[in-house]
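JOB MANIFEST
job_type = single_chain_structure
chain_count = 1
residues = 218
[input]
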Amino acid sequence: MASIRYATEADACAIANLNIIGFQPAPLYRNLFRGIDPLTALPMKLCLCYDKLSDPKVHLLVATDPTSNQILGCARWRIPDPNGRSEMVLSDEARAKAALAQTSEVHPAGMNVAVYEACLKALGETRGRHVREDDIVLELLLTHPQHQGKGVGKALLDWGVRKADQKNARIYLEATPEGYPLYRKYGWRDVGELVMDFSLYGGEGDARYVVMIRKPGN
């Protein structure tokens, strides 16, 4: 069974790489990095990871193999209580990269910036309609493709569900078609839909996400 722990600065590169490998087949990534190697986004993903590690409201977890310590999956939970985790002390280099996370300096050449910005805007607007001040948000849940179906995602979910039930808090998320059955199984219910039409931003096709909320105790 996978071991769950908080991510550290030393995990950032592996998490960034996992993010790209895991989401590379998705419509969003195919449109963001159309015609270019998605791995060119690794520096940007690394900066974003450092940025999340530095945010006291973000709980970035990894699931590891207890024998090899290989990272099998990760989850990113946003929990309103800023005192909910120990302060993450980052190196000067990591802090400098975190400061670049929201700037265009880290965008890889050829990335469809219009798709990226439209996605961020759509996520912000959708969360603005559904998320309450005391809700927990599951921003990301990802299992390495080679380790899917082994309980990694469930172990990462269990951590957040326990936190939510302790706080009597709801958990909000946007589910991909692949993740939707797991969330339904563990108590999330549909409250809306988010549709991204990439043709409006120089891309092709669309992506559909189910907006879901789990009430405490479900």
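[summary]
The chain has a mean pLDDT of 95.
Residues 3-214 form a domain with the Aminopeptidase fold (CATH 3.40.630.30).
exit_status = 0
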